[in-house]
Amino acid sequence: MTHTDEYGDNMVTMLELIWGTGYMAPGGPGNVAKLLAGTQPQGKRILDIGCGIGGPAMEMVRTHGAQVVGIDLEAPLVRRASVDARTAGLQEHCRFQHVDPGPLPFPDASFDVVVSSGAVTQTADKASMFNDVLRVLCPGGYFSCYEWMRSEAEYSEDMHYWFKMEGLTYALETLVAYGDTLEDAGFVDVQMTDASAWYRNEVRREYDLIRGDLYVQMVKLLGQQDADHFVENWRAGVVVCESGEMRQGYCRGRRPD
């Protein structure tokens, strides 16, 4: 299976403008704290699936005292993350690795915690992914992810339009389906938390920001065409989030002892 890179320089720049330096998903350090809550991450070995440019992984080291391996399908993102980790002096605690689609390239029971923010959203075969996550977790270890999800309704024209504006691969599922798939894989203590109300407020705030205070900076950094594209992209995102069709959630499960 081959992978085609989807996150170009301008998209990465835009996501950092909205979500903070090093971040390609919403929530910043607060999202990292939610992912790790209750996992006692100090000194733990953590795998970050879909690490992007590395902001969350470096936050896990700085604030939570973890030892982190970040993996991603897109080599340019991994190169950027590796450079930033060295610049920050975190390379001994935070390592980034480019991987190919398919099974995780780690032995059984390699990690105490596995986290992901957005990677499962873009993975069609979630069952195989969850089975492999269970394999690389130590007994008693946690899998914790934040993902973009869907309602049970058929996709509307608004949703199809948002997909077109995003230009990314999506394989959305419902929160219930995530929970069922985790349990089928063998996870216990499965917890599902709907975060849609939180992000509905966030996406509206983001949209107001990019068509207002940030717009001039966006044009300077991205060019007029891409700046206008992202404004329309976020407007389309507001529509599907406020309708309840595009949803967000936290999912967690534990490998049995």
Question: Your description of this structure?
Answer:
A 7-stranded mixed sheet has the order 3-2-1-4-5-7-6, with helices on both faces. The protein has 10 helices and 7 strands. The chain has 2 domains: about 190 residues, Vaccinia Virus protein VP39 (Rossmann fold, 3-Layer(aba) Sandwich), CATH 3.40.50.150; about 50 residues. The chain starts with 8 loop residues before the first helix and ends with a strand. The model has no long low-confidence stretch (mean pLDDT about 95). By secondary structure, it is α/β, with parallel strands linked by helices. Strand 4, helix 5 and strand 5 form a beta-alpha-beta unit.
- The count of β-strands is 7
Strand % is 15-25%
SSE order in H/E notation?
HHEHEHEEHEHHEHHHE
Task: Say which CATH homologous superfamily of the largest domain is assigned.
Answer: Vaccinia Virus protein VP39
CATH topology of the largest domain: Rossmann fold
Largest sheet, spatial ordering of strands: 3-2-1-4-5-7-6
- Overall tally of structural domains: 2
- Given helix and strand content, the structural type is alpha/beta
CATH class of the largest domain: Alpha Beta
Please mark out the parts with pLDDT under 50 across 5 or more consecutive residues, or reply none. Answer: none
Provide the helix percentage.
40-55%
Mean pLDDT: 97
Rounded to an integer, what's the Rg over CA atoms?
Answer: 18 Å
Overall body shape = globular
Distance between the termini: 34 Å
Main sheet: strands, sense, barrel: 7 strands, mixed
The name of the CATH architecture of the largest domain is: 3-Layer(aba) Sandwich
Count of helix runs: 10
